[in-house]
Amino acid sequence: MWGAVGGSPGSWGGPRRDVGCSGGVPRELGGSPEGCGVQWGGSPGSWGGPRRDVGCSGGVPRELGGSPEGWGVPRALWGSPGRSSPPTACPGGAWRGSGYPNPPLPGVGGPGGGGGGGLGVGGGPPFSHPPPPPQLQLNYLGNYIPGGWSYEGGCGDCDLDLRPLDGVPDEQLPWVLVGVFVEQPTPFLPQFLQRLLHWRYPPARLHLFLHNREVHHEPHIAALWPRLRRHFASARLVGPEEGLGPGAARDMGMALCRREPRCQHYLSLDADVALTHPGALRALLRQNRRVLAPLLSRPGQLWSNFWGALSPEGFYARAQDYVDIVQGKRRGVWNVPYLSHAYLVGGAALRGPLGEGPVFTRPDTDPDMAFCRHARERGLFLHVTNREEFGHLLVGGGYNSSRRHPDLLQLPLNPRDWEQKYLHENYSRIFEENLYEEPCPDVYQFPLFSEQLCREVLEEAELYGWSGAGPEAGVESVALGPLGLEGAWLGALRRFLPPIARKLFPGYHPKGRAVLSSVMRYRPRPAHPAPPGPALPTATIALSLALSPAQGGGWRFPRYECGVPAPPPGWALLHPGRLTHHPEALPPPPRRPPRPPHPARPLRAAPPTPTQGCCPPPAPPLSTEDMGAP
Question: Which pTM value belongs to this model?
Fold first, then answer.
């Protein structure tokens, strides 16, 4: 039987989610040698105690590196410096020689697997880093034993103590204050604000606090603020003129919920969070934790909004299960020492363990680390869940706020958000439903980019200035290179055009390169020969993208005696260029001379109606002089 933590051979006591012992901490967990000895007994017995108490009956759990039989621990998982024998595994024997600081997990280890080697299969030298604080290590263990996550059953206790929300009337749902913080120039902020309007939660139970520290984003917020005020039950905006720092602004938002008796939950959101799941708030509320964050990471990277472990200095250290959690190989609700960007805090926690006073303001750290440290010091557990896909984090390092439309350059850094904003909504239908047209032989029209991209590219060209023959010739142009958009345009072509070209021209495999990329503007003018189109290469396909609604114009292919009107904005025209087609640009219609104003005409009076002596006779019709006409 296990020797109980606390010395007595009975069961663990303690509340749910708490792991501890009376009288001391085990030596192997970094505590004093007195008062608490963990024994790895060999007889079939079990620990008693409530959920989340560490215990097992009959064998070491697989997550701890054991086998189903007995309490033998594999030698490869429990080596220690200068010792090749396994740890003591007999009744009454203390847990020695374990090489602990982290519980061994199968298939995890090696350099970087647990913050510097460790106990996993293929791990590096044990004791390669000092053990973390004992309470954090116990929290880590509590994610797995006895009823936590396992390979066989997944998350064993994620569905316990859930808050029922299905069928609850809207007026009885929790009252939530949403704190939004724009602390730095952030890409795709309008899309972030628009997502707030589409949550699957009654607006009457939502209240908004928004802090904007960036002057660059004031027009974006002003454009959507009337809709936000109408949508939320109440809304408050604190702008850059207030001069609040990030920590003070977050303390202000949390204090608003703490002082409002009706506030049951406080949801903190940073502007670089793409919370694409409309039911994210309901999912967090249903999980019923005092502090809970949705797992968010940068697409294709391991950068996320939580840490699985802390270094002895209190900074980031990679836990052995961090990669599996971020990649979704292990799904559940995890007790972690640090979270940021987005988290839901219960009102009871705000008014209880967190207490009054500043929570996010400390002189030696940033606001999120100050909040997490404050919570840990008061025994408040921090949880993160990856049971559902909630969204992702944006990369804001390459955002150039000096440009008029900096989001145009974000495709390499934030491809998902760029596609959502700038790719045509019907792009996928090209492949699923054959949504394209062939008005002439081997000449195809199809939706490629959104009208938003067309407007922004046209505004960038207008801001830079046009060149060429001038308006009197009917055509003006500006190359994308001077606009600083050529790299973004070529990146978009390499990403989105080759799949279409391979579908329309079987056997052709373009690489998405462009010899000439420019913005052309055709203007109505008196009748003249058609303006020359852009010089097209010989042996390649040519792509034309309409940026604005056309009034006439288009392309003509003399070889096939066929003409194509200009497509709608965002649609592209694809053809083999001068190799076979020799296209010519169709001129816009000539300007019509203005019509002369029509002379004023006298009003016709209504025919008189017969009178019966009761009414005055009708007035005579107005003459031209009475109306003041020339």
Answer: 0.72
